[in-house]
């Protein structure tokens, strides 16, 4: 048994310590917004926050998580998240949607650190998140839009 | 150019949008055999729409949503003619029924040149429609969703509106003709007014109208607007349910390891160590299904327990017939085939041999394209529960009816005993037209004692066990006269054919004969060459091939648009002007070409890239799935000589633009998808085994390499055509043509690699 701090709640999980966080979220807690794709930190679909830092949950065993605060798409809150959500809707970013939880988690972490990211900052922060539907141009525009709207 | 207006009756292009019911087979696609399920207070007015007392209008979706935006587009078609309030519109996936069979996709699959609107083509189209209505399949693919349902869903909306108006008129004792529907209400000049929700119970007792009049486009309130996609919000907060997310009670998970050789099988396995691991229920052998490979599966209580235990199963493989196949060998043998054969002639005009002989100048070239995987982001998965002789299948599939048959066959039950619940698709791109995963998941669930089992493939399994875009080799010979006019065009390509394989593995039918999808993009193009022969020779290898976004167009457009660029340069002509000369009698194509040239600043100086590197344009024009697309790519090389695409200008004529926002999205999507293939992707096969395993060696375009994309949509009131795929074909040749202009190197193989 290990206790995890997920979306502001302490949760006891049964999974063995080598279990990747992704599979605890999906397989045990049924928080299915976090997605599985590559399984080896190449696509970003499984991105969650640990103490606000974006990490790939598919390669993060829960033994390494410790007491750090886990945030998933279901628990993503705050002014950055609200601004990103509004921008994502305004620019109609999503297509199939499968990658979008991961995209939003990466984008929210970026805005938290860097309230006015440049295109190069966006490239650096977002290039670990694949979108097979090609929503990149709209993601870029939506991040800029959220950055401009936030705190105005 | 003549359009395929025969699908709309004979009203001609102008009348196409206002065809009355009487011109169509009435009601055949209006009501389902079994009444639709409804909740309390909800009434199904036909097989396409339910209205509830709370005023919600639920539009029934017979197509799968895989990112293309079809839920939104189809809901708009129905809501327009219903005069619904868009804010009240909801969506729901349909059951399986004949009325939802895809007719347009099959009619489009007939091997006719788009300019050919002759009697044989019309009869063949009509017969295909008629037959497919009876024995056809529900399918989302071939960029056909909107064109398939352009009339049926509008008719269903108009029919429901007539019933609501009829109910209001009868209750108010006023003439129907004086009552009007608007934004979810029916009203009369006297001031009487009622919401759809108030009227629907009584409306449900009205007879289906004998005929309906569809709106004139000038009166459209919803169609033509750039509305945002209807399911967007659920995809931002984690609530959207993809196939991989379903959670029936008591769910178990299976992880599968298949023979790494294509079509290979399991010889024997030892699961003794694996079965002792935590959570593991069973280790079982799985057969090869639908032309795929066999292997082993671990069933466990969690996905991780299944995945971890799979690594502990020891296996011996029976590699089978593909063990001798390598992709290098495939290219060599396709080229040898072309030494002997010109292939089945899909298009032939004039005397091309004589024209080549008398040409002042000839140009020849050989092109090739590799096998490709789909790599949709949602890994292949399917959940099946088999209990008491009946099955439930939760699947992200493009073909629910075929999925149902596949599960029924594996489980040895009647199709009627299988309930298929289509979920959101995390990308499809043609991969989910195949039901191998459904057959396999059903076989695994059969071993689970009645519990539902979700079978999930890893990305590695997905790349190693796809139905690949076929590799293809293509040869060209062109003749020019002394003035640089194109007088002869000879093109032969060779590769595997998809349709015969699909007929066999999905329908159990013998597959043979020419396959239009192999040559599409080569023979069915608008250019008018005085003398031409365009052929394709099928050469089969034991490699499973399938429909990959834009199918034959995906490589044929690269070959054709690159070679026409070569010929233009050989003739000393500007590539835009050279193409325009061949399109003199095709105003629609000419308009798209010229608009792309104008918006991209073709012929104007182009500023260097931010690092000072020279930037150059390339253009390509291609018609696919009824739509015409031109793209201009701006390209430069980085200091380490890698290819950078900065900006793409894209112009599309897709007939009436039902939702310009979604059309733009699909152009962006198609371009990014095509760029991934153009710049990075190949599936290499050695001894029957796919060499690529994950996104490190099967790369996908990422944010830092994504160009700015500007899309322009040609205004039109023609019948709507496809948009999901037509954005993909032109991008590879547009980039290749720019690279030639920049470096003088003509790149004739994909992915594009400079020497
Ligand atoms: S699933 Fe974790 S990065 Fe791809
Ligand atoms: S929206 Fe489909 S993968 Fe990104």
Strand content of chain B: 15-25%
How many helices of chain B? The count is: 21
The total count of strands of chain A amounts to 5
- What CATH architecture of the largest domain in chain B do you see? 2-Layer Sandwich
How many angstroms does the end-to-end distance of chain A come to? 45 Å
Strand order of the largest sheet of chain A: 2-1-5-3-4
Largest sheet of chain B: 7 strands, mixed
Describe, in plain words, how this protein is organized in 3D.
The complex is a heterodimer of chains A (152) and B (755). Chain A is an alpha+beta fold and 152 residues long. Chain A contains five helices and five strands. Chain A has a five-stranded mixed β-sheet, with helices on both faces. Chain B folds into three domains: 42-237, Aldehyde oxidase/xanthine dehydrogenase, molybdopterin binding domain (Aldehyde Oxidoreductase, domain 4), CATH 3.30.365.10; 243-321 and 380-456, Aldehyde Oxidoreductase, domain 4 (2-Layer Sandwich); 327-372 and 468-743, Aldehyde oxidase/xanthine dehydrogenase, molybdopterin binding domain (Aldehyde Oxidoreductase, domain 4, 2-Layer Sandwich), CATH 3.30.365.10. Chain B has a seven-stranded mixed β-sheet. Chain B has a five-stranded mixed β-sheet with strand order 14-22-21-20-15. A four-stranded mixed β-sheet of chain B has the order 2-3-4-5. Chain B starts with 6 loop residues before the first strand and ends in a 12-residue tail after the last helix. Chains A and B meet through helix 1, helix 2, helix 3, helix 4 and helix 5 of A and helix 9 and helix 20 of B. The complex binds FE2/S2 (inorganic) cluster (2 copies). Residues 36-39, 41-46, 56, 58 of chain A line the site of one FE2/S2 (inorganic) cluster.
């Amino acid at each position: 048994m290990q206790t995890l701090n997920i979306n502001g709640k302490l949760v006891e999980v049964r999974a063995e310590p080598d279990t990747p966080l992704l599979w605890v979220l999906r397989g045990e807690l049924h928080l299915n917004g976090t997605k599985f794709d590559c399984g080896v930190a190449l696509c970003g679909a499984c991105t969650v926050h640990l103490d606000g830092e974006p990490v790939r949950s598919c390669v993060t065993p829960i033994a390494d998580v410790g007491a750090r605060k886990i945030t998933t798409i279901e628990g993503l809150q705050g002014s950055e998240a609200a601004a990103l959500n509004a921008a994502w809707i305004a620019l109609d970013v999503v297509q199939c949607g499968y990658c979008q939880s991961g995209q939003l988690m990466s984008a929210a972490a970026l805005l938290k650190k860097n309230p006015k990211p440049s295109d190069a900052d966006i490239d650096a922060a977002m290039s670990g998140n694949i979108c097979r539907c090609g929503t990149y141009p709209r993601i870029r525009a939506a991040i800029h839009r959220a950055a401009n709207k936030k705190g105005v | 150019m003549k359009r395929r207006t025969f699908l709309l009756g004979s009203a001609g292009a102008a009348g196409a949008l206002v065809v009355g019911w009487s011109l169509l087979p009435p009601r055949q696609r209006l009501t389902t055999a079994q009444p639709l399920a409804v909740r309390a207070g909800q009434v199904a007015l036909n097989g396409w729409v339910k209205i509830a007392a709370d005023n919600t209008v639920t539009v029934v979706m017979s197509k799968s949503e895989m990112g293309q935006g079809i839920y939104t587009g189809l809901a708009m078609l129905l809501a327009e003619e219903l005069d619904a309030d868009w804010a009240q519109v909801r969506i729901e996936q349909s059951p399986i029924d004949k009325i939802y069979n895809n007719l347009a996709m099959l009619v489009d699959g007939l091997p006719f040149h788009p300019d050919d609107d002759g009697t044989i083509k019309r009869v063949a189209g009509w017969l295909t429609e008629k037959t497919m209505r009876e024995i056809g399949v529900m399918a989302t693919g071939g960029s056909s969703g909107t064109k398939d349902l352009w009339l049926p869903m509008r008719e269903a909306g108009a029919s429901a509106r007539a019933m609501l108006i009829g109910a209001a008129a009868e209750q108010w004792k006023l003439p129907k003709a004086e009552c009007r529907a608007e934004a979810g209400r029916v009203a009369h000049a006297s001031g009487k007014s009622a919401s759809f929700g108030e009227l629907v119970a009584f409306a449900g007792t009205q007879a289906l109208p004998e005929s309906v009049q569809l709106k004139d486009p000038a009166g459209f309130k919803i169609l033509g607007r750039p509305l945002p996609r209807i399911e967007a919000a659920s995809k931002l907060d984690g609530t959207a349910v993809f196939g991989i997310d379903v959670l029936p009670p008591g769910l178990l998970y299976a992880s599968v390891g298949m023979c790494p050789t294509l079509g290979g099988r399991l010889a024997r396995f030892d699961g003794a160590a694996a079965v002792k691991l935590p959570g593991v229920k069973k280790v079982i052998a799985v057969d090869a299904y639908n032309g795929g490979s066999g292997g082993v599966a671990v069933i466990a209580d969690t996905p991780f327990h299944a995945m971890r235990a799979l690594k502990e199963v020891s296996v011996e493989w029976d590699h089978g017939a593909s063990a001798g196949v390598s992709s290098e060998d495939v290219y060599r043998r396709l080229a040898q085939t072309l030494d002997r054969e010109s292939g089945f002639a899909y298009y032939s005009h004039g005397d091309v041999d004589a024209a080549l002989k008398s040409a002042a100048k000839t140009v020849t070239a050989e092109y090739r394209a590799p096998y490709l995987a789909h790599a949709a982001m949602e890994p292949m998965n399917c959940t099946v529960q088999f209990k008491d002789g009946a099955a439930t299948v939760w699947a992200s599939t493009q073909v629910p009816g075929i999925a149902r048959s596949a599960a029924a066959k594996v489980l040895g039950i009647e199709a009627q005993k299988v309930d298929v619940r289509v979920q959101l698709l995390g990308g499809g791109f043609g991969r989910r037209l195949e039901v191998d995963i459904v057959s396999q998941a059903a076989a695994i669930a059969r071993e689970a004692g009645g519990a539902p089992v979700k079978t999930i493939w890893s990305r590695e399994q997905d790349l190693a066990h796809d139905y690949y875009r076929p590799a293809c080799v293509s040869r060209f010979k062109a003749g020019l006269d002394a003035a640089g006019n194109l007088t002869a065009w000879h093109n032969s390509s060779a590769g595997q054919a998809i349709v015969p394989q699909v007929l066999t593995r999905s329908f159990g039918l013998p597959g043979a004969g020419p396959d239009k999808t192999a040559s599409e993009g080569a023979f069915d193009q608008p250019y008018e060459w005085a003398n031409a022969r365009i052929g394709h020779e099928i050469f089969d290898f034991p490699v499973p091939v399938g429909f990959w976004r834009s199918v034959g167009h995906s490589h044929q457009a690269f070959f054709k648009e690159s070679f026409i660029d070569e010929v233009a340069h050989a003739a000393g002509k500007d590539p835009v002007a050279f193409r325009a000369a061949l399109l003199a009698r095709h105003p629609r194509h000419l308009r798209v070409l010229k608009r792309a040239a104008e918006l991209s600043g073709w012929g104007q100086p182009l500023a260097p890239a931010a690092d000072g590197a020279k930037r150059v344009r390339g253009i390509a024009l291609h018609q696919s799935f009824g739509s015409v697309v031109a793209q201009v790519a701006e390209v430069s090389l980085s200091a380490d000589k890698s290819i950078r695409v900065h900006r793409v200008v894209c112009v599309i004529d897709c007939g009436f633009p039902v939702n310009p926002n979604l059309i733009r999205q699909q152009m962006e999507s198609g371009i990014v998808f095509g760029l991934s293939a153009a710049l990075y992707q190949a599936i290499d096969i050695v001894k029957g085994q796919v060499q690529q395993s994950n996104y490190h060696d099967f790369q996908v375009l990422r944010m830092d390499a994504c160009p700015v994309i500007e899309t322009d949509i040609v205004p039109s009131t023609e019948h709507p055509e496809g948009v999901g795929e037509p954005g993909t074909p032109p991008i590879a040749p547009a980039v290749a043509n720019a690279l030639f202009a920049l470096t003088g190197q003509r790149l004739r193989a994909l992915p594009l690699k400079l020497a």
